[in-house]
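so the lab meeting is tmrw and i was supposed to have these ready like two days ago... anyway. pasting both below. for each one the top line is the aa sequence and the line under it is the structure tokens. i havent really looked at them closely yet so no promises
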Amino acid sequence: MGVTKDEAWELAEHWVGAWNAHDLDSIMTHYEDAVELTSPVAARLLGTADGMVVGKANLRAYFQRGLEAYPDLQFHLVDVLWGLNSVVLYYTNQTGNRTGEFMELSSAGKVARVVAHYNA
């Protein structure tokens, strides 16, 4: 059946709200324990070539580092796309840079895999 438009927007708006509040506990409610994230920002912040973060504890530590590195971090949701078991969040940050995050969802509706894309 897949993700509905309303479900996709609800997830996206809650996710962006949690980030804008810098509420790490709320941010983490969206992710599976075995989550995998791939991001060029992770590669830069963590000094890894593959930019991969595996597992909820490691993801939390990475997000904590990001929030500390960017204390003025704010996201503005531009659009949300939805598929069978996935969503794409398209948003800008406080400097106007654009990001698209592909999020594959588990059967429980939690994010199991993320692939982040940036324009800067």
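ok protien two:
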Amino acid sequence: MRIELADLSSREINDLANDGRLDLVISLGISVTKGIVGFQWTELRRLQPVLVMPETHPLANLKRVPLGRLRNLPLIGLAKHSYPEYASHVRGMLKPFGVSPNFVSFVNDSLSTLFTNWRRAVRRQF
């Protein structure tokens, strides 16, 4: 048996799985569950979304961040090319709280790329 771990975008996961080059996918679920024929999906754990920010950010002192506090804050998200449903997922999550996300930038790589620009970052649950 050979196991290879890879940090792939949703699009890459779909492409590799449809080409028969993936046997197992562990994913956050954003746009991965669509378009892969022949895969059985099982939820392992439901993850809470987190907000990552520098330790010096005013919200970093809170144990939980009320979603209303995200109004007008500049956010960095995952690009549509790699994660087609990411922005609409975040918009849908925030809409009931009257918040429209203010995306100022999108990254084309992976989730890990979002964290690389922060030397000292904290993560807070919503």
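from a quick look at the 2nd one: The first strand starts at residue 50 and ends at 54. The mean pLDDT is 78. will dig more after coffe
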